[in-house]
Specification:
Elements lengths: L3 H6 L19 E6 L5 H15 L4 E6 L6 H14 L6 E4 L4 E4 L5 E6 L3 H6 L5 E5 L6 H10 L9 E6 L7 H4 L5 E6 L9 H9 L5 H8 L15 E2 L9 E7 L6 E9 L2 E10 L4 H10 L7 E4 L4 H9 L4 E3 L4 H9 L2 E4 L4 H9 L2 E3 L5 E5 L5 H23 L2
Parallel strand pairs: 1-7, 1-8, 2-5, 2-6, 6-7, 9-15, 10-13, 12-15, 13-14
Antiparallel strand pairs: 3-4, 4-5, 10-11, 11-12, 16-17
Length: about 400
């Protein structure tokens, strides 16, 4: 049973009602999947914090496909919930190690990525695991993680898997697991969802039925009509570039995406500088100054935000309205050699889901689905507009 003193410290009324029965769920495999904005990850973090508070000597492992993406996802969410719940005096948070320790129960959270198999093999004494974006993992990845959860423990062992059901052929949907619980949720189950984001999800019905089924209804689907091939991953970039440009897609409730693009011998190297919600123009300006972006750097911005572009200019930045010809921009980028790396969480996720619309008759349209496309827009703004302006200059001098 849940201890009353823990209820006092962690107000259960903050948890969405649909998830309350899962607080004491002890299945080895707990699948929490469904639509966007349903609060899946928040609940997984809430459950971990409750167990950190209640149970002595537990060792929880945070898992993502790429270790570097844990900092801005699970780890950041756990930190935020700890502080928002007023529990910071109970915990020691080790930023450099991505480690959280409850000083009273000595239970802790540690982190590892599937991309570092040697580190994963060296981890011992794990009592439970949380895998975020579980669809990123291959089945063999999961089997290796499952092997980490072994031996006698004082409390129950559990693997929590949180994900969107993007591909009905994925092993998460086709593989049966004994001692498992599955819960599908949607935005309707999240009492904290804002009206603007809810409308974004509902509007998917008018754009693409498959996206609507996956991200609004939380049903298994299959992403079709993907626009780009995944960008080739390179962990080592050139030490210098012929040019550096930036792409900026404004947001507030949606994410702001700022992408640095190094150009070397007509190849493009992407670096995700910002991918965050609730940033004002003042926030963006402050962060760009800290990044050392100068007044001579080309920053190609969403042309539908002229006031925000002008504010950047008045603060010394060379902000330029981007060409908004989406079809021409996409066609150009498809001919480019573009590289990403494992740090670019938003870029690498968006490119896998960035798709053309499909109408009710199954016809593919020359227009992307407007959903989770902030990095894709920023990259297109910069590369296409920069090259188009250069081509126009060359033509004038012929």
């Amino acid at each position: 049973m849940i201890r009353k003193d823990i209820i006092i410290q962690f107000n259960l009324s903050t948890i969405n009602k649909i998830y309350l029965p899962l607080i004491e769920n002890k299945s080895r495999y707990l699948h929490i999947y469904g639509g966007a904005g349903s609060g899946k990850s928040v609940f997984a973090a809430q459950k971990l914090i409750i167990r950190l508070m209640m149970e002595q000597g537990n060792r929880f492992l945070l898992i993502r496909k790429v270790a570097k993406t844990i900092r801005n996802s699970q780890f950041s969410l756990l930190k935020s919930l700890i502080y928002n719940s007023g529990l910071q005096n109970y915990f020691s948070i080790k930023e450099s190690e991505l480690r959280i320790i409850n000083e009273h129960t000595r239970s802790e959270v540690i982190s590892a990525g599937v991309d570092d198999p040697e580190k994963l093999k060296s981890i011992f004494g794990i009592t439970s695991i949380w895998i975020e974006e579980a669809t990123e993992l291959e089945y063999n990845d999961f089997l290796q993680i499952d092997l980490r959860l072994r031996g006698r423990t004082r409390y129950y062992k559990q693997i929590i898997l949180t994900y969107n059901p993007v591909n009905s052929y994925h092993w998460l949907n086709t593989t049966e697991q004994k001692n498992s619980t599955k819960l599908r949720t949607t935005y309707r189950d999240n009492k904290y969802i804002d009206d603007e984001y809810k409308n974004v999800l509902l509007n998917l019905k008018n754009q693409d039925e498959n996206f609507y089924n996956i991200y609004t209804l939380g049903e298994w689907g299959t992403l079709k009509n993907i626009i780009y091939k995944p960008f080739e991953i390179r962990e080592e970039y050139p030490l210098s570039y012929d040019e550096i440009i930036y792409g900026l897609d404004f947001g507030y409730n949606n994410k702001t995406a700022l992408i640095k693009i190094g150009i070397k011998e007509k190849e493009y190297y992407l670096e995700e500088l910002l991918y965050k919600e609730h940033l004002t123009n003042g926030d963006i300006i402050c962060l760009m100054k800290k990044m050392g972006i100068s007044g001579n750097d080309y920053i190609y911005c969403d042309a539908s935000e002229p006031e925000r572009i002008e504010e950047l200019r008045r603060n010394g930045f060379n902000s330029i309205p981007a060409d908004k010809n989406v079809k021409a921009g996409i066609d150009f980028l498809k001919r480019c050699k573009i590289f990403s790396n494992s740090k670019n969480e938003g870029i690498n996720k968006e490119v896998l889901h960035y798709s053309y619309k499909q109408d009710k008759n199954g016809n593919i349209l020359d227009e992307p689905v407007k959903f989770n496309d902030h990095c894709m827009d920023a990259i297109r703004y910069a590369i296409y507009t920069h090259n188009k302006s250069r081509m126009q200059v060359n033509i004038r001098y012929l």
